[in-house]
TrEMBL record:
NDH-1 is composed of 14 different subunits. Subunits NuoA, H, J, K, L, M, N constitute the membrane sector of the complex. InterPro entries: NADH-Q_OxRdtase_suN/2, ND/Mrp_TM. GO terms for cellular component: endomembrane system; plasma membrane. The gene is nuoN. This is NADH-quinone oxidoreductase subunit N. It is a multi-pass membrane protein. Its EC number is 7.1.1.-. One of its GO terms (biological process) is ATP synthesis coupled electron transport. It is an enzyme of class 7 (translocase). NDH-1 shuttles electrons from NADH, via FMN and iron-sulfur (Fe-S) centers, to quinones in the respiratory chain. The immediate electron acceptor for the enzyme in this species is believed to be a menaquinone. Couples the redox reaction to proton translocation (for every two electrons transferred, four hydrogen ions are translocated across the cytoplasmic membrane), and thus conserves the redox energy in a proton gradient.
Amino acid sequence: MTADLSAAPGAFTTAADTAPSVVQSVDWLAIAPPTLTALAALLVLVADLFLPVHRKKLLGYGTLTALAAALALLIPLRAGDRATFCVTTGTQPCSYTADHFTLVIQALVLGGAFLTALLSLDDTRKLPAGEYGFLLLASAAGAALLPASRDLATLVVALEVASLPAFALVGIVRGDRRSSEAALKFFLSSVVATAVTLLGVSFVYAATGTLHLTEIAARLDDVPPALDTLAKTGVVLTLVGFAFKVAAAPFHFWVPDTYVGAPLPIAAYLSVVGKTVGFSGLILVTVVAFPSYADVWGPAVAVLAALTMTVGNVAALRQRADRDRSAVRLLAWSSVAQAGYLLVPIAAAAYSSDEQIGSTVAYALMYAVVNLGAFAVAALVSRTHPGNRVDDYRGLYATRPLAALALGFFLLCLAGLPPGIIGLFAKVTVFSAAVDAGLGWLAVVMAVNVVIALYYYLQWTAILFRSPESPENAETGGGAPASGTPRRFPVPAPLTTAIALTAVVGILLSGAPQLVLRFAAVNLF
């Protein structure tokens, strides 16, 4: 122990007195949503060992309750600007921040997980309730942690916690070769993405000497010339890793087969929560950590956006030539195209300000509601037509008029047509972000792609209201025999609730789109 002899007369301080304290108080309220979700996952796993088979269904309701409680814990955090796990010296950067951006994304991912759990109750393929609930809650915990992460280590850990259980969820149907193949493709692509991301993170750390996002931003302003190439390489590799996660072209190849092979609720989960996780991570590393290299990632993200929306829409358009075209595969290609639209405001933020990010968040909120609703109706149709072809939706209005109207509304929202006003407003907001940033060429590409997408969205919508095929002209492919008489079948209450909930929220948002735009307005600085 050394003494400080330069202190004032009569004072005697030691190095132990002046050293920064390593003891920190944890803001438990700030970390409550992901923490509660993780604890609930462990509780469901343990309870599965003791509950008899006929009571396993309680685990599904326990999963729903835990996710609802996690959502409720966001209410006392609505003021935002809470942080914990902070460094006690210098600028005191924090590893966990519960700001407005964090709360919006956490509400989206926890709400998406809640609707996924709701779709999974009474699933026709009899998913194992205990394993399923544990994996879903564990993945949701990682997804809720990621938007609050403010250092690269926590960011990567949260990304993997969200992704690893998802691999098992995709392949959870035992004995299903297609499900196992989908899980393998998803796993291999994600492993490659993680390896590339970690390599990029290591390069950034080597160039800056820190992992905190705000500190990286400050140090990248003054990188020595000898390390400039290393830093730029790290930025590019990190972006490539996240491009895999958000299914941006040309890193999208795993999406169609994974969505088709996975259980329908998990396909819905990946299309909404999985995509949100990737985009929130991409926003954090570009806008918060790498603003100094906007000239590097800005053009790259703009090109990715144009390529992704074009590949997704053209591939979806080609599905019409396939007689056995899968509705889920069509939704998968649609999700790739929607990812392209979501990338536009991120690219625009490189040329203007981070306020453009609010457009991505608003679009993600709209997309989450209507896409989950579309998958909920697909789950309804799959109860009588396991093949889930687009042609299986012919005459749905005759058998299930409310479900047909709901799906038609969801498809029009995705297309950006009235009465799906929220979809129209979201697309206009994204389009305006590109124009305001001076990316006129990207706005033109987006406009062309919106027109292309109208064809397959409107074609699917028209099929819902056509007359059912007559028995002599109908084909029986991958589902129940066609019949001229509309067939009624019981629909589980959870599935009905999921369709009704998404439809009501979509209609309310279409009536007051300014609410979602205000809610999604974020400022990361």
